């Protein structure tokens, strides 16, 4: 499988709808302090189902919705869509026929949240199950947040066991 | 699944040692089961010894050595259990120039099996990117992505906008 | 001492805001007593708002913004209570080029009242040092200090040995 | 007051006796990963009286004594001396006459430790009291260890209070 495209709208500092296409190999993200690089990586962590606001540097999940600047009012909806292509593994019905899948997640300021696969509402569990079917289930290993690289070194032996278990 | 765990643990250890030695130009690293009799419940210790240095507690390692040791383990897990994509946010920040080069080279060699998204401030890491996006705040507080031509970026200049609708 | 604490707290807040605005080119930062009625026991909250951005929880700040905010508070305490010396170990690691320059300039302006010892990998910070020592391990595992001629260091070369007995 | 000289011997990776002179202004410390920069700063933290092995990245205090390499045997003594000059404040007797003071700390592998002022044995309290007389008592504010710069941001309100209290 391969990441093809990410669409971010109203998520953290991404006020306007932003679309980014990924290539094979290495995609570099650069820019000055505070411009939104880690927000971009938080968007990927979020659309893949992250449930803890703390892992997104917030206190409540609503902290991910664009909350305004000097010249722009807060929004009431955050939406991120991740399109995945080149799917090698056999997927369960009804997804067997698709060559591309788009996972979406929405959060309204009311607290209501939605998950979608190819624009059809689904449950978080459906997204998680599909990710495991595609071999990307161990997302704990796939995303290393800023400043967290040596957590495995300072972890306790039992915490280290959990990390190794996910990977093995 | 006990047999499976022990077998995978053993393979992970082997790869961990190999990647570590390629990063540090020698030395050794391994994971140790604290309670060999109960592998499925045992805590896991980590030992790492840079080449020529004495054996000591991993907490005494330097900031850069700790980061490189952690990256060795991460890459070792990818060698056993290839993951389709991986996102790294300024993982190269503690590394000096020599270690950043080694990290970048290894990342490049793994990028045909894993798709990497790498956030970095380091020019040596930028150079190995197949495509580079710059995140800007032309309007304060509003992030936009522009795709950047690497050659121009290193000469500190602008890029053309990505599809910002 | 209640009056003294409140007065110092107030001055610290003023300086914190000033240093912060000089680093970020505007914006505001302050410390807030959670329980104004009991200043000697109250917890302290911190608010920081980069210029043009909305008010939000400081945990949502970026890595570089957090570091620069912390450095602003540190330098503010030095303005109120000058300290003879200060040791900073890679405090500039999360900063981009522009913020590193601002940090280096501010450090330079404070170095007539405070003696600084600064560990860094960043060439922009090295440039403001009055004297530069390189730590080497000519023999693996054994640290030695050599005094380095900056001009040569930036061209990546050796230095003459410090007094290693 | 001003730091004049540091002598390190047998402390962490400093096997040979190393002497460093400080200038006014800014002293820069550079070098590759793992060469001993943070060990150098740990030596200063230690000679000023640090009591927690954890702040020196060790488990027991003996971890600061040179513990060997492939070609060198471990040592049994660590010693650091810090010379301070240009002392402006009036110091209590018997130190009033001195224009320079040298603080030393030794640790033997047996666990025995010694503190000295100008080569005369003293107590840790004597060093701490003199530092306060010279205006350098708030050492928590004078040494920012690697990776710890934003601890004040992630601290709880009560922890933040302690940090501000020391400085104020
Ligand atoms: N919900 C939100 N709405 C609007 N802006 C937000 C929101 N959450 C966070 N931000 C802003 O995003 C900025 C942080 O962005 P981010 O952490 O992505 O920076 P970065 O590019 O990773 O920088 P660094 O190089 O310093 O790590 C902060 O200034 C913060 O104010
Ligand atoms: N008691 C000791 N005896 C000998 N060597 C030691 C001792 N304690 C730590 N070391 C060695 O010191 C090295 C770490 O040095 P230090 O943390 O000063 O590096 P650094 O120059 O700060 O590197 P970085 O740029 O990565 O932060 C480790 O490799 C460790 O093995
Ligand atoms: Mg960031
Ligand atoms: Mg260090």
Structural class of chain A: alpha+beta
Helix content of chain B: 25-40%
Overall shape of chain A: it is globular
Compressed to H and E, one letter per element, the order of chain B equals: HEEHEHEHEEHE
The arrangement of helices and strands of chain A along the chain is EEEHEEEEHHEHH
Mean pLDDT of chain B, to the nearest integer, reads: 89
Helix fraction of chain A by DSSP (H/I, runs of at least 4): 10-25%
What is the overall shape of chain B?
Answer: globular
Rg calculated over all Cα atoms of chain B: 19 Å
Q: Write down the oligomeric state.
A: heterotetramer
Q: From the alpha-carbon coordinates, what is the Rg of chain A to the nearest angstrom?
A: 17 Å
Q: What does the main sheet of chain A amount to?
A: 6 strands, antiparallel
Overall pLDDT of chain A, averaged? 92
Name the beta content range of chain A: 25-35%
- Would you count the extended β strands of chain B for me? 7
Which class do the helix and strand fractions of chain B yield? alpha+beta
List keywords for this structure.
heterotetramer; A: alpha+beta; six-stranded antiparallel beta sheet; 5 helices; B: 165 residues; alpha+beta; three-stranded antiparallel beta sheet; binds adenosine-5'-triphosphate; binds magnesium ion
What does the secondary structure layout of this molecule look like, with pairings?
The complex is a heterotetramer, with 2 copies of chain A (168 residues) and 2 copies of chain B (165 residues).
Chain A: E1 2-9, E2 18-21, E3 26-30, H1 37-47, E4 77-85, E5 101-108, E6 113-117, E7 120-122, H2 124-133, H3 139-142, E8 143-144, H4 151-154, H5 157-167
Antiparallel strand pairs in A: 1-2, 1-4, 4-5, 5-6, 6-7
Chain B: H1 2-24, E1 28-33, E2 44-49, H2 63-80, E3 85-89, H3 97-110, E4 115-119, H4 123-126, E5 131-136, E6 144-148, H5 150-154, E7 160-161
Parallel strand pairs in B: 3-4
Antiparallel strand pairs in B: 1-2, 5-6, 6-7
Helix pairs in contact in B: 1-2
The structure holds adenosine-5'-triphosphate (2 copies) and magnesium ion (2 copies).
């Amino acid at each position: 499988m391969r990441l093809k495209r990410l669409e971010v709208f109203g998520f953290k500092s991404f006020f306007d709808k932003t679309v980014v296409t990924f290539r094979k190999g290495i995609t570099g993200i650069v820019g000055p302090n505070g411009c939104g690089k880690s927000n971009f990586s938080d968007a990927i962590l979020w659309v893949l189902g992250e449930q803890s606001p703390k892992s997104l540097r917030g206190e409540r999940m609503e902290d991910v919705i664009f909350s305004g600047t000097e010249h722009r009012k807060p929004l009431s909806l955050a939406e991120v869509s991740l399109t995945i292509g080149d799917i090698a593994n056999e997927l369960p019905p009804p997804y067997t026929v698709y060559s591309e899948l788009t996972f979406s997640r929405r959060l309204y300021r009311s607290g209501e949240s939605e998950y979608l696969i190819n624009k059809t509402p689904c449950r978080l569990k459906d997204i998680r199950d599909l990710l495991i079917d595609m071999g990307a289930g161990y997302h704990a290993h796939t995303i290393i947040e800023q400043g967290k690289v040596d957590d495995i070194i300072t972890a306790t032996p039992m915490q280290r066991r959990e990390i190794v278990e996910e990977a093995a | 699944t006990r047999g499976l765990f022990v077998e995978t643990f053993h393979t992970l250890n082997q790869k961990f040692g190999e990647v570590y030695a390629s990063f540090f130009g020698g030395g050794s690293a391994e994971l140790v089961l604290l309670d060999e009799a109960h592998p499925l419940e045992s805590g896991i210790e980590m030992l790492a010894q840079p080449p020529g240095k004495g054996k000591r507690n991993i907490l005494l390692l330097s900031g850069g050595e700790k980061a490189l040791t952690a990256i060795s383990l991460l890459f070792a897990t990818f060698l056993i259990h290839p993951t389709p994509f991986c996102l790294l946010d300024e993982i190269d920040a503690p590394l000096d120039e020599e270690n950043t080069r080694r990290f970048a080279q290894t990342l490049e060699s793994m990028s045909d099996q894993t798709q990497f998204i790498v956030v970095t401030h380091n020019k040596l890491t930028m150079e190995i990117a197949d495509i580079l996006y710059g995140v800007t705040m032309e309007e304060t507080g509003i992030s936009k992505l522009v795709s950047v031509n690497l050659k121009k970026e290193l000469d500190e200049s602008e890029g053309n906008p990505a599809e910002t609708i």
